Amino acid sequence: MKKIVIALTALAALTGTASAADLAARPYTKAPVAVAPVYNWTGLWISGGGGYGLSQYQHSEFSTFAPFNLVSAGQDAGGKGWLGKVGIGYDYQFMGNFVIGAFADADWSNIGGQYSINTGGVPGALIGASNLTGQFKNDWSWSVGGRVGYVALPGLLTYFNAGFTEAHFKGTNFLNTNAPLAALTTGISLGDQTRSGWFVGGGTEYAVTQFFPGLFWKNEVRFSEFNNKNNSLVCTVAVGCGLGAVLNQNSHVFEQKATTELVYRFNWGGPVVAKY
Is 202 helix (H, G, I), strand (E, B) or coil? Predict the structure, then answer.
């Protein structure tokens, strides 16, 4: 009996050892790979802000009387002023970090300056030599265009844009600053002008804070060129300069604007994890 108990005990020990050896090894599980967050720039946005502008008004004047002499050739006048701006647009992100979009914006400004025209004794209308001095001012403009951008850092978009623009310039009433005692009203004026042209520019947009998803800070510089325009300087009083066109003016305008704006993106909800 004692021998049977010893034999059963030995058999149980051997069976337990074999069972432990037969257990499969614990499988190795690789730690999940961390995926960097990707920000989605696709969606509608609105913006508002302000800035500063510089302009260059190039002009030449011709007599309206035969032989239609050149009176004032190739003069440049500079202007400057502040502006307020609003905009709306839509962007689409593709191929990873690239962004394309379309937009429209408008601004209200007081960009302007003073310029002079020395008539040099134009026959027929102006008596003697008059130095016509007046103000030009761009008071509003609007633009439509497209842009191409690249997401350089999470929450940072860099871009270039281009498109069509139109600007309005207020009319000018000229004074004769050659008067011996004080500038005199001449009755000569240049009407309002609406000019069309093109623009190119570039800038950045950056997420302001993670606590206000969708709010961005945009900074942009834009250069615009407005087409040549021919206008008549017209006398509106019978005394002093007569009635009708006095001079023909050919002019061209360039502008450069630097703006800063706050942008709100309606689709922005913070980072989303890219799916592979």
Answer: strand
Position 182, amino acid: A
Alpha-carbon span 267 to 263, nearest angstrom? 12
Residue 249 or residue 90, greater confidence: 90
- Where in the chain are the domains? 45-268
Q: 13: helix, coil or strand?
A: helix
Q: In the numeric block, which tokens belong to residue 5?
A: 């108990």
Q: Which of 86, 82, 83, 81 is nearest to 106 (CA)?
A: 86
User: How far, in Å, CA of 163 to CA of 148, rounded?
Assistant: 12
The answer to whether the CB of 248 falls within 8 A of the CB of 61 is yes
Contact 63, 71 (CB under 8 A): yes
pLDDT per residue over 89-124, tens digit each?
Answer: 999 999 999 999 999 999 999 999 999 887 765 544
Residue type, 168: H
C-alpha–C-alpha distance, residues 102 and 23, integer Å: 65
Please give the radius of gyration of the chain, using alpha carbons only, rounded to the nearest integer: 37
* AA letter at 101: G
> What is residue 12's three-state secondary structure?
helix
Q: Say if residues 203 and 145 touch (Cβ distance below 8 Å).
A: no
pTM above 0.70? yes
Of the candidates 141, 129, 144, 111, the residue with the CA atom closest to the CA atom of residue 180: 129
Write down how long the chain is.
276
**What is the widest separation between alpha-carbon atoms in the chain?**
149
Q: ∠44-45-49 over CA atoms, to 5°?
A: 165
